[in-house]
Amino acid sequence: MKFKSFALTLFTLCVTATCGTEAAKAATMSVVADGLDNPRGIAFDSDGTIYVAESGKGGDGNGGVNCIPSPSAQYIPLCSGSTGAVTKITTDGTQESVITDLTSLALTPSGEQAAGPADIKFDSSGNAYLLTGLAGDPNNRDTVLGTPDLGQLYKVDLNTGSLTSIADFAAYEAQNNPDGSDVINNPYTMTIVGDTAYVIDGGGNSIYTVGLDGSGIQNVAAFPQGTLSSDAEYPPGVEGSTGFAPTVQSVPTDITVAPDGSLTVVEYTAFPYEEGTARIFSVDPDTLEMEVVADGFTQLTGAAYDSEGNLYVLQHMNQSEWKGIEQGGNIIGDISGSVIKIATDGTRETIWSGDGLEAASELTFGPDGNLYISNRSRLAGEGQILKLDLESGGATKVPEPASVIGLIMASAVGAKAMKRKRQQQLLAKVETL
């Protein structure tokens, strides 16, 4: 999606990056858990215990038999192994694997960018659900890879480790290909509202509605492609743009419920991961109709609302990923990420940038009111769970132009009637400026 103007684009990026002026620290950060393998989704039970879905570090694929070339990592082999897990961190800091030996698929031999246990969530009754990723052609799942448990949503018994399939997204992608592009499946994250799960497929660029009552997949919608600028940067030696603006897949990566009940979804954007082009969508939970409500971010992988309706988003890295890390896990540059707060009036505020926050995914509020983040979430043996205490200080706030405020205000819009009402109020306000 193109920005409204060059001036607006520059201003938006300056707010996010603080234009070389470091904002005052708005928080303090501490490590809650360490030594994890590709940690992804986080959930809290009623006792405040943290559960983490570890995607694992893959394996040797049965001596290379159960391996496929990665469709997004320069065809490095993705090989399977039983290294995925669900880990819990108790309130006293004890770290324990609850379920082990779950299927994992990762780049070989680094174990980077694993697909396996991708997210874990609880419903209002305390039932646990586990989402598994795939990161490849679903037609190869059962045959070449021999990993039929990937690309699915399960109801999970945390006491016995038993899994009951609720939905098979890999099979659905293979048969229907909702976004009409390449056939890739990678369920990545979800949220649960009542007896419905909303699942984001970052490989298939889609959102699914799933009935947890056994009714399975009920609805699906693809996210719209974005547009690369004609001067987008590419890695050295890779042919880039030729003066026109090609489209690029959305790659949605996280979902949360907005204060009005609508869904908020953030995106990563596909290769070459152009900076400043990641978008935020508002999605109607009933129809899955969607609209872009904000842009100007880089590689978003997390979103969460606080009790006052402010939206927090997580940038996986603050620059195109190829500048910071090579496919296969070799870190060659800065992999720092950021947490950005978008207030209800549209003000953007960088809460934390770098300083230990690196290649992160998942952003959720804990019962203590602090933000919890899966850090170094694409690396094996180096993953962490971080706690970001937001009450430790204040940050410099920079107001945005009215037009951008309008986009952000729309992120709390769900029902069509509410959308029209707020848009009318916004127009009236703008006309008086």
Structure report:
- With 433 residues, the protein is mainly β.
- The protein contains seven helices and 27 strands.
- Strands 2, 3, 4, 5 and 6 form a five-stranded antiparallel β-sheet that branches.
- Helix 6 (402-409) packs antiparallel against helix 7.
- The longest helix is centred in the last third of the chain and has 17 residues, at 416-432.
- The chain is globular, with a radius of gyration of 20 Å.
Overall helicity: 10-25%
Please indicate the percent range of residues in DSSP E strands (runs of 2 or more): 35-45%
Overall mean pLDDT:
86
Return Rg in Å. Answer: 20 Å
User: Major sheet: size, sense and barrel closure?
Assistant: 5 strands, antiparallel
In terms of per-residue confidence, which ranges show pLDDT below 50 for 5 or more consecutive residues?
Answer: 1-25, 393-433
Structural class: mainly beta
Give the CA-CA distance, first to last residue: 27 Å
Question: Which overall shape is indicated by the principal axes computed on the Cα atoms?
Answer: globular
What is the number of strand segments? 27
Please count the helical segments.
7
Give the arrangement of secondary structure elements.
Layout: H1 6-17, E1 28-36, E2 39-44, E3 50-54, H2 61-64, E4 67-69, E5 77-89, E6 95-107, E7 117-122, E8 128-132, H3 141-145, E9 152-156, E10 163-168, H4 169-176, E11 187-193, E12 196-201, E13 206-211, E14 216-222, E15 226-227, E16 247-248, E17 252-257, E18 263-267, E19 278-283, E20 290-297, E21 300-305, E22 311-315, H5 321-324, E23 336-342, E24 348-358, E25 361-365, E26 371-375, E27 383-389, H6 402-409, H7 416-432
Antiparallel strand pairs: 1-27, 2-3, 3-5, 4-5, 5-6, 7-8, 8-9, 9-10, 11-12, 12-13, 13-14, 15-16, 17-18, 18-19, 19-20, 21-22, 22-23, 23-24, 25-26, 26-27
Helix pairs in contact: 6-7
